[in-house]
Amino acid sequence: SVPAATAAPTVLPHEVFSPPVVDAVLDGRLATPEEWFPTPPQEDPFYAAPEVDPATPAGTLLRSRKVQPQNVLVRFGGLDAWQVLYTSTGLDGGPRVVSGIVLVPHAFGQHGEKRVVSYLEANDNLAPGCGPSYRWVGGNTADLAQVSLGPIPQMLARGWAVAMTDFGNNGAPGVHPFSVGALSGPAALDILRAIEQVPDAPIERDVAPVIPLLDLGSTDLAEK
After folding, report:
1. What is the pTM of this model?
2. CB 58 within 8 A of CB 95
3. Fewer Cβ in 10 A, N or C end of the chain?
4. Could you check whether the bond before residue 177 is cis, i.e. omega within 30 degrees of 0?
5. CA angle, corner 200, sides to 186 and 129, nearest 5?
6. Distance, CA of 39 to CA of 33 (rounded, Å)
């Protein structure tokens, strides 16, 4: 005789996905059609670089604004984000303007020691507007190779804040500095100084430790 079929056990979202992904589904929402295409950085006044005094220290915050994190048409819940415009160091030793974004989970520091990760997101497109500060507010939705939805939720799930530099000014035309170590390296460190100056972000100047992290293509945080 054939045994009676038994119902498959119910699989709950938190058993499969990390907390930021569950929050995105339960507390977040799908983007409306009006939110599908945010203003490109080249047309966004936020990215317009101001005149900078040559004596301005690297890591000086020039401008910031709170934004709604969005990726693959999902507006995330449980997560705050700020775009930043800040100074870093150019090849001539003088200041240059760089943009970026910081993601801060609502559970920042609640699972142990507060940590801030400077995450160099993988980038295989050097066109204007392809940096993370635009992707993480819903830009370039079709460019799924660059969303880094593997390691970033792992870090957010641990209550860590994640800062991502655009390596240059995401709204500026011209040659992109990605992979130029003398530019991208300082930009990844200077964003850590800049986000401490964001008025309404919960990142204190003395937060520690700070972790620079390069995306080498692996989604296993433990390997890093």
Report:
1. 0.82
2. yes
3. N
4. no
5. 50
6. 13
